Amino acid sequence: MSQYHSYIAIEHLSNYIGKEVTLNGWVSDRTDKGKLCFIKLRDGSGIVQCVAFRPTIGDELFEQAKSLTQESSVSITGTVRAESRAPSGVELDIVNVKIWQIAKEYPITPKEHGTEFLMQHRHLWLRSTRQNAIMRIRAAVIKAIRDFFDGNGFKLMDSPILTPNACEGTSTLFETKYFDLGSAYLSQSGQLYAEASAMALGKVYTFGPTFRAEKSKTRRHLTEFWMVEPEMAFFDLNDDMDLAEDLVEYIVQYVLQTCQKELAAMGRDISKLEAIRRPFYRMSYTEAVEWLNKNDVKLNKKQSDGSEIQIDFPWGEDFGAPQEEAIMQQFDKPCIIHRYPAEVKAFYMKRDPDQPKVALAMDMLAPEGAGEIIGGSQREDDFDALLSRIEHEKLPREAFEWFLDLRKYGSVPHSGFGLGVERTVKWISGAEHIREVIPFPRMIYRIVP
RNA sequence: UCCGACUUAGCUCAGCUGGUUAGAGCAUCUGACUGUUAAUCAGAGGGUCCGCGGUUCAAGUCCGCGAGUCGGAGCCA
């Protein structure tokens, strides 16, 4: 790469002890003590304390250093010195200060703030140490995902974001006008297009933003989030589950290798992540229902008069958050639950030839209360079976004609899944809310900034 | 959509059974200090108590309606 500027990143400062360097960044904090002035300089890569001592640097420069407010932008030249009292082990003795701008009173002070205030100032909140660490972990997770697929024979095949209809026909979509062709909808999944792509290139993945207009109000939902969806020709459900485990193991180990500082900044218990090695746990839906009933985990059922009663968990009902949480409490590694009742799953999932009421579907649940991070399945590859599912769900056949074509011209067994990037980053980083792990979250009651 | 909680200074909050001039810490400004890292010490400024209506001699406090935010359920990644 070209040498764009002769400046040095703070994260590499320990290689320059005894040398004079220029750092560019922002003042994260300043404190004076008589003839001493301490400036914490942040450049995105790290934070270092810069020290000005009045008798050695002179009155004019000292007054300049003292005038710096929180988040003022500066270039500071100084000599790097090993300093045992500093958290990073180094400090900078100031030789010169170039002020780019003296910042106005900064809203985010070094004390606590509530989430509402911080979310209103998301554009500034991103500068804080914790948010910096989360964004670096997010970048590492995304790089791990790309490296994993690119290195294993997958090709990136982007899916369209504007689509003519609901992918799965269930969830609420964002609608927009589309010239003279009526309405278009923001994609809630790239999967159908990934299936077509897999028939062209074998093993593919799509990676992009996804939109759900559901009025979800929980700490694991966003209306706009990022999802990676691999799709593989000639993969059955077992291959699909193996791939999901390989991917998740790879992501966690990659973050462990490259984000030690960031995980420490988050106060993350590293041993919990080190335990994430294959094999993970697996359980069929039927086994899970038996486990729930053996362990007395009931289902809250609303009666017609509005009151709630608790009943044994009936086979055929989909799991909610309470069931998933109960199941995961026994596990320190992710668990895949597979072979769900077909009725609660999407129309394109293949039925289990051995159990016609069961779909070859799978969900991966992450430990520590992180919940579902992956949902996938083996796809229905039989033309007649798929068509009858489309008709049964009362989906418009015209819109799925091209999708049916894939079952007309060289249909093969194939499988895939979707992994939610933000849910994965939330789990690995230990962030307590999903809104912290995407730079500018989109939620039901927030679209600014 | 359903259930619950909250709203007082720029920020985080306290404010008792309704009672006289509205409280603290931080932030900001002024001053002191050669080792602070949530510095300390002394001083100063800073208020539509979310809005509207009601009860009362008296409302930040009680009641009603509305707004906003947060958490949970459902939906799912």
Keywords:
alpha+beta, nine-stranded mixed beta sheet, RNA-binding, 449 residues
Average of the residue pLDDT scores: 91
List the total number of helices: 14
Helix content: 25-40%
Shape: elongated
The main β sheet shows up as: 9 strands, mixed
In the predicted model, the low-confidence regions spanning at least 5 consecutive residues are: none
Q: What is the quaternary state of this protein?
A: single chain
The N- and C-terminal alpha carbons lie at a distance of: 33 Å
Strand content: 25-35%
**Quantity of strands, as a count:** 19
Helix and strand composition category: alpha+beta
Structural Rg = 27 Å
What does this structure look like?
With 449 residues, the chain is an alpha+beta fold. 29% of the residues lie in helices and 29% in strands. The protein is built from 14 helices and 19 strands. Strands 6, 10, 11, 12, 15, 16, 17, 18 and 19 form a 9-stranded mixed β-sheet that branches. It has a 5-stranded mixed beta barrel with strand order 1-2-3-5-4. The chain has a 3-stranded antiparallel β-sheet with strand order 7-9-8, with no helix packed on it. The two termini are 33 Å apart. The mean pLDDT is 91. The chain binds one RNA strand of 77 nucleotides through strand 1, strand 2, strand 3, helix 3 and strand 11.
